[in-house]
Specification:
492 residues, alpha+beta, 18 strands, 18% strand
């Protein structure tokens, strides 16, 4: 893939992440100006972020062996590899030219309509073009186009279009038109363009209401004009395609000011995308070494590398003549469920990492993500005791290969047991069992405060909720490791 298409792909990933965040969390807020500014700034940032290479690390890998010079005889020279046909590049150019042609046609239609009208200059410097044809009004730059009839009978439309001009909405459209040209294949770009135009309409509608025009009459005007057609897709206009959204937004109460801080939540997502788009790279350095090396020297050379990931090595390591599934079967046969963890009802997935060395030995076993000390230790024990593998090979040489391997501990009969469950007010509180532990081990909470179970009067309780496993630990820390029973009192 060419560097340009690689850049386009990465920037498209940033844009998809950013626009999805806006569409899911911020599109229904009343921060019209803030949302519009951050949409534009975020779009520009998404074009710049792929250029930053903050996580790329060059790791020198030493390739042992004597240096060999290229053959000088033309008859023995290797023929250059054939250049692959640029299918992706051609497809991208076709899409780009198609969208560009559609944009040019829309611009030509708009300017023809502007030339046919009678132009006058308003006091604020805005150019007003009136036409005899009954067309939907629109604005472009500092020019407003309206039918003569609307100018005489509907002054609210002129106020609406002036708002588009004064807020420089045309600049937004120009920027997003360029974005759609470059990222024509990304559906979220087109959806967000529609949402940006809707933001323009929200701002213009707000300006009309602030001008003193009656809201009810303005809503009726929108409904009457809803039968008009949308002819000039490049321009800002008295749009009606999302009429219900506009009226709902005018009737909606202002969003809480604190919700503006929700925009900060996009930062970790963009940071994660940066790390995804900037993988660690390894650079192979060829060095001339003596032709005879001792075994100790060869081992030292191997240990200086971190190993190749399983997915990247040319010839994969094998276990007992099979693949990784054969190793999984062997682990399941030798795994023993720790009694203490079983009695406590602890289960989950332990994620390990280990390496298969060039001699076939399994070493460097460690826990990447644990569940419980007993479960982690058992998973380490079994994987570390693995029989020898057949090593992986890279360029004909055995190499160290790293694995990420999950070990799943699951109690029988708990496959579908929910982590939280509501229970009815029946029986005594001491009859509740969680994770196989009696209620003496359970944390009891009344209206958010830990209490002694004997101090709970069920006659005053409205509801009970049981929290288990990770849910209880996340909410109450280590105190909730045996489960939590939350009681909520009846309202007085």
């Amino acid at each position: 893939m060419s560097p340009f298409l690689l850049y386009i792909g990465r920037s498209s990933l940033y844009l998809a992440m950013f626009y999805a965040f806006f569409l899911l969390l911020m599109r229904r807020t009343t921060f019209f100006r803030l949302n519009r500014i951050l949409l534009l700034m975020g779009t520009l940032a998404c074009f710049l972020l792929p250029v930053l290479r903050i996580r790329t690390v060059t790791v020198p890998l030493l390739a042992a062996g004597p240096l060999v010079e290229a053959a000088s005889d033309p008859t023995t020279a290797t023929a250059p590899a054939a250049t692959p046909f640029p299918y992706l590049e051609i497809l991208y150019v076709i899409g780009f030219l198609t969208v560009l042609g559609w944009t040019v046609v829309a611009a030509v239609r708009m300017y023809r309509t502007i030339r046919k009208g009678v132009s006058t200059r308003l006091e604020d410097g805005t150019r007003l073009v009136l036409t005899e044809a009954d067309i939907p009004s629109f604005s472009w730059g500092r020019t407003i186009v309206m039918s003569q009839k609307d100018a005489e009978t509907n002054p609210a439309i002129l106020v609406h279009e002036k708002a588009h001009v004064h807020k420089a909405h045309t600049l937004d459209i120009l920027l997003f038109t360029a974005v759609t040209l470059v990222h024509w294949f990304n559906p979220l770009v087109w959806i967000t363009l529609g949402e940006l135009k809707l933001l323009h309409e929200y701002e213009a509608d707000d300006a009309v209401l602030n001008h003193g025009i009656d809201a009810t009459q303005y809503h009726l005007l929108l409904v009457r004009k809803a039968v008009g057609e949308k002819r000039f897709s490049l321009a800002n206009g008295f749009q009606h395609a999302k009429l219900k959204n506009r009226i709902d937004m005018m009737l909606q109460a202002p969003s809480s000011g604190w919700k503006r801080l929700s925009w900060l939540a996009i930062l970790p997502f963009l940071a994660g995308t940066m790390f995804l788009c900037n993988p660690v790279r390894a650079k192979v350095v060829t060095a001339g070494l003596p032709e005879i090396l001792s075994e100790t020297t060869l081992d030292a050379v191997s240990d200086t590398t971190k190993g190749l990931p399983f997915s990247l090595v040319e010839v994969k390591p094998t276990f007992n003549g099979g693949d990784a599934n054969a190793f999984s079967k062997w682990v399941n046969e030798n795994l023993k469920y720790p009694l203490a963890a079983k009695d406590a009802g602890v289960q989950g997935r332990v994620t390990l990492q280990f390496a298969v060395y060039p001699d076939g030995k399994v070493r460097d076993t460690k826990v990447l993500r644990g569940v419980h000390p007993d479960l982690d230790a058992e998973a380490l024990r079994v994987v570390s005791s693995s029989p020898d593998w057949t090593p992986g090979y890279e360029k004909g040489e055995p190499v160290k290969v790293t694995y990420t391997f999950p070990v799943i501990f699951q109690l029988k009969g708990n496959k579908t047991e929910p982590k939280t469950a509501s229970i009815h007010l029946t029986g005594e509180a001491s009859d509740v069992f969680i994770r196989g532990a009696l209620a003496d081990s359970v944390l009891f909470v009344l209206d958010g405060k830990p209490v002694n179970r004997k101090d709970i009067d069920l006659e005053t309780i409205e509801s009970i909720q049981v929290l288990k496993e990770e849910t209880a630990i996340e909410k109450f820390g280590d105190k909730g490791r045996y489960g939590v029973v939350e009681f909520k009192s009846k309202k007085q």
